[in-house]
Design goal:
Distance between the termini: 52 Å
CATH topology: Rossmann fold
CATH class: Alpha Beta
Shape: globular
Strand content: 15-25%
CATH superfamily: Alpha/Beta hydrolase fold, catalytic domain
Helix content: 10-25%
Number of helices: 7
Number of strands: 14
CATH architecture: 3-Layer(aba) Sandwich
InterPro entries: AB_hydrolase_fold, Carboxylesterase_BioH
Structural class: alpha/beta
Length: 357
Protein backbone atom coordinates (compact mmCIF):
# COMPACT_ATOMS: atom_id res chain seq x y z
CA UNK A 1 0.00 0.00 0.00
CA UNK A 2 1.43 3.38 -1.03
CA UNK A 3 2.17 5.96 1.62
CA UNK A 4 -0.52 8.58 2.14
CA UNK A 5 -0.09 12.05 0.68
CA UNK A 6 -0.55 14.81 3.25
CA UNK A 7 -2.88 17.65 2.35
CA UNK A 8 -3.75 20.89 4.05
CA UNK A 9 -7.41 21.76 3.67
CA UNK A 10 -6.65 25.21 5.03
CA UNK A 11 -4.53 25.96 1.97
CA UNK A 12 -7.43 25.42 -0.43
CA UNK A 13 -9.31 28.50 -1.57
CA UNK A 14 -12.61 29.10 0.19
CA UNK A 15 -15.43 28.75 -2.31
CA UNK A 16 -19.02 27.77 -2.98
CA UNK A 17 -19.66 24.71 -5.13
CA UNK A 18 -22.51 23.81 -7.45
CA UNK A 19 -22.78 21.24 -10.21
CA UNK A 20 -24.98 20.64 -13.23
CA UNK A 21 -25.04 18.80 -16.55
CA UNK A 22 -25.20 20.13 -20.09
CA UNK A 23 -25.79 18.48 -23.45
CA UNK A 24 -26.59 14.87 -24.16
CA UNK A 25 -29.48 13.07 -25.75
CA UNK A 26 -31.75 10.10 -25.09
CA UNK A 27 -31.18 6.96 -27.14
CA UNK A 28 -33.23 3.80 -27.50
CA UNK A 29 -31.38 0.59 -26.66
CA UNK A 30 -32.28 -3.06 -26.27
CA UNK A 31 -32.49 -2.53 -22.51
CA UNK A 32 -34.56 0.64 -22.64
CA UNK A 33 -34.06 4.38 -23.09
CA UNK A 34 -30.74 5.78 -21.90
CA UNK A 35 -28.92 9.11 -22.01
CA UNK A 36 -25.50 9.69 -23.57
CA UNK A 37 -23.01 12.50 -24.25
CA UNK A 38 -24.05 14.64 -21.27
CA UNK A 39 -21.25 16.61 -19.62
CA UNK A 40 -20.78 17.14 -15.88
CA UNK A 41 -19.87 20.71 -14.90
CA UNK A 42 -18.61 21.78 -11.46
CA UNK A 43 -18.96 25.48 -10.72
CA UNK A 44 -16.64 26.97 -8.10
CA UNK A 45 -17.23 30.54 -6.93
CA UNK A 46 -14.83 32.41 -4.61
CA UNK A 47 -16.29 32.80 -1.13
CA UNK A 48 -15.79 36.55 -1.44
CA UNK A 49 -17.41 36.45 -4.90
CA UNK A 50 -15.59 36.82 -8.20
CA UNK A 51 -13.61 39.94 -9.01
CA UNK A 52 -12.59 39.00 -12.56
CA UNK A 53 -14.80 40.05 -15.49
CA UNK A 54 -15.03 36.57 -17.04
CA UNK A 55 -15.15 33.06 -15.59
CA UNK A 56 -12.78 30.29 -16.61
CA UNK A 57 -13.88 27.01 -18.19
CA UNK A 58 -11.28 24.25 -17.81
CA UNK A 59 -11.14 21.26 -20.20
CA UNK A 60 -8.86 18.32 -19.34
CA UNK A 61 -6.90 15.98 -21.59
CA UNK A 62 -7.04 12.33 -22.63
CA UNK A 63 -7.63 9.62 -19.98
CA UNK A 64 -8.09 12.46 -17.48
CA UNK A 65 -11.03 14.16 -15.79
CA UNK A 66 -11.70 17.41 -14.00
CA UNK A 67 -9.73 16.38 -10.91
CA UNK A 68 -6.60 17.41 -12.86
CA UNK A 69 -7.33 21.00 -11.89
CA UNK A 70 -8.00 20.39 -8.17
CA UNK A 71 -5.44 19.09 -5.65
CA UNK A 72 -2.06 18.14 -7.06
CA UNK A 73 -1.08 14.49 -6.52
CA UNK A 74 1.74 15.51 -4.16
CA UNK A 75 -0.82 17.22 -1.92
CA UNK A 76 -0.14 20.69 -3.22
CA UNK A 77 -2.76 23.23 -4.17
CA UNK A 78 -3.91 23.00 -7.78
CA UNK A 79 -4.79 25.61 -10.36
CA UNK A 80 -8.48 25.70 -9.44
CA UNK A 81 -7.62 27.11 -6.00
CA UNK A 82 -5.06 29.48 -7.50
CA UNK A 83 -7.65 30.91 -9.86
CA UNK A 84 -10.25 31.14 -7.08
CA UNK A 85 -7.79 33.00 -4.86
CA UNK A 86 -7.27 35.44 -7.72
CA UNK A 87 -10.94 36.20 -8.11
CA UNK A 88 -12.04 33.88 -10.90
CA UNK A 89 -15.26 31.93 -11.03
CA UNK A 90 -14.19 28.49 -12.27
CA UNK A 91 -16.09 25.85 -14.25
CA UNK A 92 -14.48 22.40 -14.37
CA UNK A 93 -15.85 19.72 -16.67
CA UNK A 94 -15.68 15.96 -16.92
CA UNK A 95 -15.90 15.54 -20.67
CA UNK A 96 -18.61 13.21 -22.05
CA UNK A 97 -18.18 9.48 -21.39
CA UNK A 98 -15.62 9.83 -18.61
CA UNK A 99 -15.56 10.63 -14.92
CA UNK A 100 -18.96 11.80 -13.72
CA UNK A 101 -20.21 12.16 -17.31
CA UNK A 102 -21.31 8.56 -17.53
CA UNK A 103 -20.29 6.35 -20.43
CA UNK A 104 -23.22 4.61 -22.09
CA UNK A 105 -22.03 1.15 -23.14
CA UNK A 106 -25.06 0.76 -25.41
CA UNK A 107 -23.80 3.62 -27.60
CA UNK A 108 -21.34 1.16 -29.09
CA UNK A 109 -18.18 3.24 -28.98
CA UNK A 110 -15.20 1.40 -27.47
CA UNK A 111 -13.14 3.07 -24.79
CA UNK A 112 -9.42 3.32 -24.16
CA UNK A 113 -7.31 4.10 -21.08
CA UNK A 114 -3.68 5.17 -20.81
CA UNK A 115 -1.57 2.38 -19.34
CA UNK A 116 1.11 2.91 -16.70
CA UNK A 117 3.67 2.54 -19.47
CA UNK A 118 2.12 5.34 -21.52
CA UNK A 119 1.85 7.65 -18.52
CA UNK A 120 5.42 7.11 -17.32
CA UNK A 121 7.04 7.32 -20.76
CA UNK A 122 5.16 10.45 -21.83
CA UNK A 123 4.25 12.36 -18.67
CA UNK A 124 5.96 11.50 -15.42
CA UNK A 125 9.32 9.73 -15.88
CA UNK A 126 10.64 11.02 -19.17
CA UNK A 127 14.10 12.16 -18.09
CA UNK A 128 15.87 9.23 -19.78
CA UNK A 129 13.59 8.96 -22.81
CA UNK A 130 15.11 9.16 -26.29
CA UNK A 131 11.76 9.63 -28.06
CA UNK A 132 12.21 13.41 -28.21
CA UNK A 133 15.26 15.59 -27.61
CA UNK A 134 13.77 17.79 -24.90
CA UNK A 135 12.85 14.88 -22.59
CA UNK A 136 16.19 15.07 -20.78
CA UNK A 137 15.21 18.50 -19.44
CA UNK A 138 12.30 17.15 -17.37
CA UNK A 139 12.92 18.01 -13.70
CA UNK A 140 9.64 19.30 -12.29
CA UNK A 141 7.58 16.14 -11.73
CA UNK A 142 7.41 15.49 -7.95
CA UNK A 143 8.94 12.12 -7.11
CA UNK A 144 10.21 9.31 -9.32
CA UNK A 145 7.17 9.21 -11.60
CA UNK A 146 6.86 5.40 -11.48
CA UNK A 147 4.59 2.91 -9.67
CA UNK A 148 5.36 2.61 -5.98
CA UNK A 149 6.07 6.29 -5.62
CA UNK A 150 3.13 7.72 -3.63
CA UNK A 151 2.75 10.77 -5.88
CA UNK A 152 2.60 8.62 -9.01
CA UNK A 153 0.21 6.13 -7.41
CA UNK A 154 -2.10 8.95 -6.35
CA UNK A 155 -2.04 10.43 -9.84
CA UNK A 156 -2.51 7.15 -11.71
CA UNK A 157 -5.52 6.30 -9.52
CA UNK A 158 -7.26 9.26 -11.19
CA UNK A 159 -6.72 8.01 -14.76
CA UNK A 160 -10.02 7.16 -16.48
CA UNK A 161 -11.31 5.68 -19.71
CA UNK A 162 -12.36 7.74 -22.72
CA UNK A 163 -13.98 7.19 -26.11
CA UNK A 164 -11.39 5.80 -28.53
CA UNK A 165 -13.02 7.42 -31.59
CA UNK A 166 -11.62 10.97 -31.87
CA UNK A 167 -14.36 12.16 -34.20
CA UNK A 168 -17.19 11.00 -31.94
CA UNK A 169 -15.51 12.42 -28.85
CA UNK A 170 -14.81 15.80 -30.47
CA UNK A 171 -18.39 16.07 -31.70
CA UNK A 172 -19.83 15.18 -28.28
CA UNK A 173 -17.66 17.74 -26.47
CA UNK A 174 -18.39 20.39 -29.10
CA UNK A 175 -22.14 20.07 -28.61
CA UNK A 176 -21.94 19.95 -24.82
CA UNK A 177 -19.39 22.78 -24.77
CA UNK A 178 -21.63 25.00 -26.89
CA UNK A 179 -24.47 24.35 -24.45
CA UNK A 180 -22.17 25.29 -21.57
CA UNK A 181 -21.02 28.53 -23.19
CA UNK A 182 -24.61 29.46 -24.02
CA UNK A 183 -25.49 28.88 -20.37
CA UNK A 184 -22.48 30.62 -18.79
CA UNK A 185 -22.00 33.46 -21.27
CA UNK A 186 -18.65 35.06 -22.16
CA UNK A 187 -15.74 33.12 -20.65
CA UNK A 188 -12.05 32.37 -20.90
CA UNK A 189 -11.56 28.79 -22.09
CA UNK A 190 -8.50 26.83 -20.92
CA UNK A 191 -7.71 23.43 -22.42
CA UNK A 192 -5.01 20.81 -22.06
CA UNK A 193 -3.77 18.22 -24.56
CA UNK A 194 -6.73 16.25 -26.00
CA UNK A 195 -8.86 19.19 -24.92
CA UNK A 196 -7.12 21.31 -27.56
CA UNK A 197 -9.36 20.34 -30.49
CA UNK A 198 -12.37 21.06 -28.28
CA UNK A 199 -11.04 24.57 -27.71
CA UNK A 200 -10.65 25.17 -31.45
CA UNK A 201 -14.18 23.89 -32.11
CA UNK A 202 -15.76 26.00 -29.37
CA UNK A 203 -13.96 29.20 -30.37
CA UNK A 204 -15.01 28.52 -33.95
CA UNK A 205 -18.65 27.90 -33.00
CA UNK A 206 -18.98 30.71 -30.41
CA UNK A 207 -16.26 33.32 -31.10
CA UNK A 208 -18.29 36.02 -29.35
CA UNK A 209 -18.46 33.97 -26.14
CA UNK A 210 -14.86 32.74 -26.00
CA UNK A 211 -13.22 35.97 -24.81
CA UNK A 212 -9.80 34.31 -24.73
CA UNK A 213 -8.49 30.81 -25.41
CA UNK A 214 -5.50 29.25 -23.64
CA UNK A 215 -4.30 26.03 -25.25
CA UNK A 216 -1.87 24.21 -22.96
CA UNK A 217 0.01 21.85 -25.27
CA UNK A 218 -3.01 21.22 -27.53
CA UNK A 219 -3.33 17.88 -29.29
CA UNK A 220 -1.36 18.16 -32.48
CA UNK A 221 0.46 18.93 -34.62
CA UNK A 222 -1.72 19.78 -37.65
CA UNK A 223 -3.06 16.86 -39.67
CA UNK A 224 -1.07 13.93 -38.23
CA UNK A 225 0.40 12.55 -35.03
CA UNK A 226 4.08 12.90 -34.20
CA UNK A 227 6.62 11.26 -31.86
CA UNK A 228 4.51 8.21 -30.94
CA UNK A 229 2.68 7.69 -34.26
CA UNK A 230 2.41 9.17 -37.74
CA UNK A 231 -1.31 8.55 -38.27
CA UNK A 232 -3.31 11.21 -40.10
CA UNK A 233 -6.12 11.93 -37.64
CA UNK A 234 -7.00 15.62 -38.17
CA UNK A 235 -8.20 16.23 -41.75
CA UNK A 236 -9.36 19.73 -40.76
CA UNK A 237 -5.84 20.62 -39.69
CA UNK A 238 -6.49 21.26 -36.00
CA UNK A 239 -9.44 18.91 -35.55
CA UNK A 240 -11.08 15.71 -36.72
CA UNK A 241 -14.40 17.51 -37.25
CA UNK A 242 -15.25 20.50 -39.47
CA UNK A 243 -14.09 24.04 -38.72
CA UNK A 244 -15.16 27.24 -40.48
CA UNK A 245 -12.74 27.98 -43.32
CA UNK A 246 -12.84 30.68 -45.96
CA UNK A 247 -13.13 29.68 -48.75
CA UNK A 248 -15.36 26.80 -47.65
CA UNK A 249 -13.80 23.40 -48.44
CA UNK A 250 -15.74 21.40 -51.01
CA UNK A 251 -14.29 17.97 -50.20
CA UNK A 252 -15.38 17.04 -46.68
CA UNK A 253 -13.17 13.95 -46.48
CA UNK A 254 -10.02 15.85 -47.56
CA UNK A 255 -10.92 19.49 -46.92
CA UNK A 256 -7.41 20.97 -46.99
CA UNK A 257 -4.40 20.63 -49.25
CA UNK A 258 -1.17 19.83 -47.41
CA UNK A 259 2.41 21.05 -47.78
CA UNK A 260 5.44 19.69 -45.91
CA UNK A 261 7.75 22.31 -44.39
CA UNK A 262 11.06 20.70 -43.32
CA UNK A 263 12.44 21.52 -39.88
CA UNK A 264 15.61 23.55 -39.55
CA UNK A 265 16.45 22.01 -36.16
CA UNK A 266 17.17 18.48 -34.95
CA UNK A 267 15.03 19.27 -31.89
CA UNK A 268 11.92 20.12 -33.90
CA UNK A 269 9.69 18.06 -36.18
CA UNK A 270 8.80 18.90 -39.75
CA UNK A 271 5.48 20.74 -40.10
CA UNK A 272 2.58 20.03 -42.40
CA UNK A 273 0.85 23.29 -43.29
CA UNK A 274 -1.70 24.19 -45.94
CA UNK A 275 -0.71 24.23 -49.57
CA UNK A 276 -2.01 26.97 -51.85
CA UNK A 277 -4.71 28.19 -51.92
CA UNK A 278 -4.50 28.85 -48.19
CA UNK A 279 -7.87 28.89 -46.46
CA UNK A 280 -8.41 31.25 -43.54
CA UNK A 281 -9.98 30.60 -40.13
CA UNK A 282 -12.15 33.73 -39.77
CA UNK A 283 -13.84 32.78 -36.50
CA UNK A 284 -10.66 31.81 -34.69
CA UNK A 285 -9.13 35.07 -35.90
CA UNK A 286 -11.65 36.92 -33.68
CA UNK A 287 -10.40 35.28 -30.47
CA UNK A 288 -7.22 36.09 -28.48
CA UNK A 289 -5.29 32.79 -28.42
CA UNK A 290 -2.30 31.59 -26.44
CA UNK A 291 -0.52 28.29 -27.10
CA UNK A 292 1.68 27.36 -24.13
CA UNK A 293 4.41 24.70 -24.20
CA UNK A 294 6.57 23.12 -21.49
CA UNK A 295 10.32 23.02 -22.00
CA UNK A 296 10.72 19.24 -21.55
CA UNK A 297 7.42 18.02 -22.99
CA UNK A 298 7.11 16.10 -26.25
CA UNK A 299 5.01 19.05 -27.37
CA UNK A 300 8.19 21.12 -27.38
CA UNK A 301 9.10 19.22 -30.54
CA UNK A 302 5.99 20.19 -32.51
CA UNK A 303 3.79 22.91 -30.99
CA UNK A 304 5.58 25.37 -33.28
CA UNK A 305 3.73 23.64 -36.14
CA UNK A 306 0.35 24.35 -34.57
CA UNK A 307 1.32 27.99 -34.15
CA UNK A 308 2.57 28.21 -37.75
CA UNK A 309 -0.65 26.64 -39.03
CA UNK A 310 -2.77 29.18 -37.16
CA UNK A 311 -0.73 32.14 -38.38
CA UNK A 312 -0.86 30.86 -41.94
CA UNK A 313 -4.67 30.77 -41.62
CA UNK A 314 -4.85 34.40 -40.49
CA UNK A 315 -5.03 33.81 -36.73
CA UNK A 316 -3.01 36.05 -34.42
CA UNK A 317 -1.70 33.63 -31.82
CA UNK A 318 0.93 34.03 -29.13
CA UNK A 319 3.26 31.14 -28.28
CA UNK A 320 4.46 31.01 -24.69
CA UNK A 321 7.42 28.63 -24.57
CA UNK A 322 8.06 28.22 -20.88
CA UNK A 323 11.79 27.56 -21.21
CA UNK A 324 12.32 30.75 -23.19
CA UNK A 325 10.28 32.60 -20.54
CA UNK A 326 12.64 31.40 -17.81
CA UNK A 327 10.41 28.59 -16.49
CA UNK A 328 12.38 25.38 -16.81
CA UNK A 329 11.94 21.63 -16.59
CA UNK A 330 8.24 21.12 -17.26
CA UNK A 331 6.65 18.11 -18.90
CA UNK A 332 3.17 17.60 -20.28
CA UNK A 333 1.32 17.55 -16.92
CA UNK A 334 2.73 20.88 -15.82
CA UNK A 335 -0.22 21.93 -13.64
CA UNK A 336 0.67 19.02 -11.32
CA UNK A 337 4.37 19.81 -11.22
CA UNK A 338 6.50 21.52 -8.61
CA UNK A 339 6.53 24.98 -10.20
CA UNK A 340 2.89 25.04 -11.29
CA UNK A 341 2.21 28.35 -9.52
CA UNK A 342 4.95 30.02 -11.54
CA UNK A 343 3.26 28.87 -14.74
CA UNK A 344 -0.28 29.85 -13.83
CA UNK A 345 0.94 33.31 -12.82
CA UNK A 346 2.12 33.77 -16.43
CA UNK A 347 -1.24 32.60 -17.76
CA UNK A 348 -3.11 34.98 -15.46
CA UNK A 349 -1.02 37.91 -16.70
CA UNK A 350 -1.78 36.96 -20.31
CA UNK A 351 -5.51 36.75 -19.59
CA UNK A 352 -5.55 40.24 -18.09
CA UNK A 353 -3.69 41.66 -21.09
CA UNK A 354 -5.78 39.85 -23.70
CA UNK A 355 -9.21 40.76 -22.33
CA UNK A 356 -8.23 44.41 -21.95
CA UNK A 357 -7.21 44.49 -25.60
Amino acid sequence: MAAAISRSAASEALHRREYFFVGGEYVNTTTGTLRQNQMYVEKLTPAANSSQPYPLILFHGGSQDGTNWLNKPDGGVGWASWFLDNGYEVYIVDEPSRGRSAWNAAAGFPTTTFSVEVITSRFTATLNSTAWQQAKLHTQWPGSGVPGDPVFDTYYASVVQGIANNTEQEQAVREAGIALLDHVGPAVVVTHSQGGPYGWSLADARPSLVRALIQIEPKGPPFREEIFSSDYTRPWGLTSIPLTYDPVPTNQSAPLSMHLVPSDSANLTDCILQAEPIRQLPNLAKVPILVETGEASYHAAYDHCTVAFLRQAGVQVEHLELGKAGIHGNGHMQFMELNSDEIVTKLHAWILTSIQG
